[in-house]
Amino acid sequence: MCSVCGTSENLWICLICGNVGCGRYKGGHAIEHWKETEHCYSLELETQKIVEEYNDLLTSQLDKQRNYYESLLSEVKEENEKEISAATSKAVSMMKLQKLQAKLDKCLEEKSFLDDINANLVKNQEMWKERVRKVQEREQAALKLKDEKIEKLEAELRDLIAHIECQNAVAAAPGSISSDIQGGTILPGPSTPSSSSSPVRPTKDRKRN
């Protein structure tokens, strides 16, 4: 009978120490003995079947551990898939970012190139403006000088015409008047052109008989 409850059914005897206890279908005292002593070998008295409780427990624990690790592996696999998906998305985002950065760098480079061209054009424009201004100043100075020369030549021409007209008038005068005029001084007329002869002012009084 069971050493704990006294039942005579479903009895097990420990092959290590001889303890008798009931099985799981009664009070389960044989299992309690195994848990307390860790004696692994027992004999079922009714069937004379030796059962290695340790192997049963180990198998059960291995099943539990297998299920546990399979669950962990499933979680790890799921996490890895999430990380791979996140890494893929991140890689795609990084590629897009790199492409955008490359486009931005190219735009900045083109802008810098255009700024240099614009600066050179402005500089050349100022240079050409200065050249045109100097050319205009030279042309204005040349025109002014030319006008002054023309005015001087016109004045000389008027004096020459007046002198020629005076000489012609003297030559056409009667003899006595011509003699008196030849003894005087010819004064130039006004600066305006005139068809009349310039006045003649004698330098000495004419002698009377």
UniProtKB/TrEMBL annotation:
InterPro entries attached to this UniProt entry: Znf_RING/FYVE/PHD, Znf_UBP
Low complexity bias locations: 188-199
Domain of life: Eukaryota
Keyword terms of this UniProt record: Coiled coil, Metal-binding, Zinc, Zinc-finger
Coiled-coil regions listed in the entry: 62-170
Keyword Transcription belongs to the record: no
The keyword DNA repair belongs to this UniProt entry's keyword annotation: no
Swiss-Prot/TrEMBL GO biological process terms: protein ubiquitination; Ras protein signal transduction
GO cellular component: cytoplasm
Protein name: UBP-type domain-containing protein
Lineage: Eukaryota, Viridiplantae, Streptophyta, Embryophyta, Tracheophyta
